[in-house]
From TrEMBL:
Lineage summary: Eukaryota, Sar, Alveolata, Dinophyceae, Suessiales
Database matches in Pfam families: Ephrin_rec_like
Ranges in a coiled coil: none
InterPro entries (alphabetical): Tyr-kin_ephrin_A/B_rcpt-like
Protein name, UniProt field: Tyrosine-protein kinase ephrin type A/B receptor-like domain-containing protein
SMART domains, sorted: Ephrin_rec_like
Organism of derivation: Effrenium voratum
Domain of life per record: Eukaryota
Length: 371
């Protein structure tokens, strides 16, 4: 059986060879690719190679078979991306597989290894810094890297970057002094007798350091719209709470009366009945009308509402407030009247004094004469 198969293959091969065709077998480190088992005379085909090998040419059958081989791929050394390389050194641009050579590094850098090529792949090499890293830098895998954020290195040397004090940070990498470690806005500083930062302490809730003075918790100030607890400035700040708004709904609901004579919400309309602390707003009369309290046409009415931590510190006088024509027209008259009256009264008072003085004088004269 085996004999029969062997002899039939042998017969086939012989027969084909007789016709001038070439039987093909796969090249070493490759396979037949697009080639048939038997290449007919006068034709060619392209076998394929494994990764890392390159074909030396096509396969041809011309009376005899010219079979290419798969050769190890070389490497292009100028394509190697190595930092701090000065030149190719003794390397050719094209390095054959299995060969090695030495790149040249910049001054103060040293090559980690010879460059070698293996089946199209270049070995990894690097140029390592010789000697210690400068201030603000530390050695990482043979290279000097800038100190990361929140660290610094004050001197040139082999040491690592030092972390900034607790809670402090740097605004950039590569920092070279402790002075470049700073506290965030909501923290104050703790320093030693040499004025060196020891740590950053958080200001109490809802407060932050304002300005450059940040020596202690006394430099923490409440944010806008917050109130210190305890209230007394001499006691140390515990935290800051939201300032209470003022509930003005009852006050605004008191604005009754016929529409034309009713006080209007004015700028208070934007505060859905709760006036935030620190804000103020003004009620308003229609044009041509003035605010009036009851029937009192003489007194000016303050229409401003102002809130300070839950207290309405400024508000119209209690009572029936409305808008009237009279109070719009009358105040100038009243003012005129009052000034005139004041002048008259003032004049009268002087006259009375003068009169009194003259009286005393006349009396004295009379007394002298009587003696
Ligand atoms: C090597 O690579 C460089 C840059 O990519 C290219 O300019 C050069 O022609 C290549 N050399 C060879 C021999 O392929
Ligand atoms: C690089 O190869 C040279 C010989 O070509 C050898 O003297 C040297 O020690 C090798 N360098 C390294 C780092 O292996
Ligand atoms: C060459 O490098 C590539 C990518 O790193 C890898 O996939 C491949 O296996 C390497 N070839 C050899 C022959 O080592
Ligand atoms: C970073 O901090 C330094 C002091 O450490 C300061 O002089 C510099 O202005 C800061 N830069 C920025 C962008 O804030
Ligand atoms: C401060 O705020 C934190 C979280 O924001 C909270 O857990 C803590 O109870 C607050 N402290 C005071 C005193 O309000
Ligand atoms: C404001 O006060 C009124 C009563 O005067 C009350 O009905 C209302 O719920 C209060 N609003 C708020 C938000 O406290
Ligand atoms: C509403 O007006 C009456 C008088 O008309 C006054 O007694 C009361 O205090 C007013 N209420 C408010 C919240 O101003």
């Amino acid at each position: 059986m085996g004999n029969l198969l062997c002899s039939s293959i042998a017969v086939a091969v012989l027969w084909q060879t007789a016709l001038g065709d070439c039987p093909i077998s796969a090249p070493e480190n490759g396979d037949l690719g697009d080639c048939p088992q038997t290449l007919s005379s006068g034709s060619s085909c392209v076998p394929s190679c494994e990764e890392g090998y390159e074909l030396s040419g096509p396969a041809r059958c011309a009376g005899h078979l010219s079979m290419p081989s798969c050769l190890p791929s070389g490497c292009n050394v100028s394509e190697a991306a190595v930092e701090h390389v000065l030149s190719l050194g003794n390397c050719p641009e094209w390095l054959e597989s299995g060969e090695s050579c030495e790149l040249e590094c910049e001054s103060r850098f040293e090559l980690s290894d010879n460059t070698s090529c293996f089946l199209g792949n270049l070995s990894e090499v690097s140029c390592l810094r010789v000697g210690p890293c400068p201030a603000g830098h530390q050695a990482v895998a043979g290279l000097c890297e800038p100190c990361p954020l929140a660290t610094y290195k004050a001197v040139e040397g082999p040491g690592p970057c030092v972390p900034c004090p607790e809670n402090s940070n740097t605004n950039s990498t590569g920092r070279s002094s402790l002075q470049q470690c700073t506290c965030p806005a909501t923290f104050y500083e703790q320093r030693n007798v040499f004025d060196e930062l020891l740590s950053c302490k958080p200001c109490p809730n809802n407060s932050a350091v304002v300005g450059v003075q940040r020596f202690g918790h006394q430099d923490c100030e409440c944010f806008d719209g917050f109130v210190r607890v305890p209230e007394d400035n001499d006691l140390s700040l515990e935290y800051c709470r939201h300032a209470e708004p003022c509930n003005v709904s009852a006050l605004l609901e008191n604005l009754t009366g016929p529409e034309a004579y009713k006080l209007k919400m004015g700028s208070c309309s934007s505060y859905a009945r709760l006036l935030p602390s620190g804000r103020q707003c003004s009620l308003l009369c229609d044009a041509g009308l003035g605010a009036q309290l009851g029937s009192d046409i003489f007194r000016a009415v303050d229409l401003t509402l102002a809130c300070d931590d839950g207290d309405l510190v400024r508000r119209p006088t209690d009572g029936y407030l409305w808008c009237s024509e009279a109070s719009w027209e009358v105040p100038p008259l009243v003012f005129l009247g009052i000034t005139t009256a004041a002048t008259i009264l003032g004049g009268a008072a002087m006259e009375v004094r003068q009169h009194h003085f003259e009286g005393q004088y006349a009396k004295a004269l009379r007394g002298n004469r009587g003696r």
